[in-house]
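Entry 14. Ran structure prediction on the chain below.
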Amino acid sequence: TVGSYAYLNGALHVQVSLAMDAICRDLCERRKDTSLAYLCTPTDLHLIPKEAHDAALANYKEFSKKPFCMLMKLFGGKKMLRKNVRAPVSGVGGEFYYVDGISVAQGPNYAMAKRMQHWRAIISHSKGNVVSSNIAPSTSTASVVQNRTFAWAYEGM
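Output, structure tokens:
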């Protein structure tokens, strides 16, 4: 099993992800029994069951009634406290529900690097490799809390 767990700030994250991807690709081509492991980020777009979608909508509706939330919406415009579940998308096999947890504060490099990991996982799995791709919990690492917004969130504002 090869775990792709490296992280670097900014464009370096894309570069290290490209290097990890090349290693994983080559290993999977040369050794058919290679398995891959990834730690996905909660700040990404993920498919979810309909029940999770419905629960998220209900929770958002209830939470939005709190005075603090009303103030945040009033002063923050439409930039704060937005729903992160969207209307389902129809496709082959039915409707697909998803949560859009992508964080603009993390930037395009982070989103691209994590997307490349998803692509490699899908490609490798389609070719018969075993792939583990689980969503890791949010963590208060130095690289995360260097962003002031994330630091505030982890400190409870």
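The first helix runs from residue 11 to 30. Will compare against last week's run tomorrow.
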